[in-house]
Specification:
- There is one protein chain.
- 69% of the residues lie in helices and 6% in strands.
- The protein is mainly alpha-helical and 62 residues long.
- A two-stranded antiparallel sheet has the order 1-2.
- A hairpin with a 5-residue loop joins strand 1 and strand 2.
- Helix 1 crosses helix 2.
- It starts with a helix and ends with a strand.
Length: 62
């Protein structure tokens, strides 16, 4: 996710608190948040997939 999109998420959040959002802005906010969460989950999955467990007998397990 680009910095511009993250900035837009924050801008919409501020506007939502201060004055409310139009229906179009609410849809945009929902889409951006979904894209952000999808990226976070993909990153976490990638990190978890690279974890290797080693037992007491030094045998690698994934």
């Amino acid at each position: 996710m680009t910095k511009e999109k993250i900035d837009r998420i924050n801008e919409l959040a501020r506007k939502s608190r201060e004055q409310g959002l139009t229906e179009e802005e609410k849809r945009e906010q929902t889409e951006l948040r979904f894209e952000y969460r999808r990226g976070v989950m993909a990153n976490l999955k990638s990190q978890l997939d690279n974890i290797e467990f080693v037992d007491d007998k030094d045998k690698d397990e994934k």
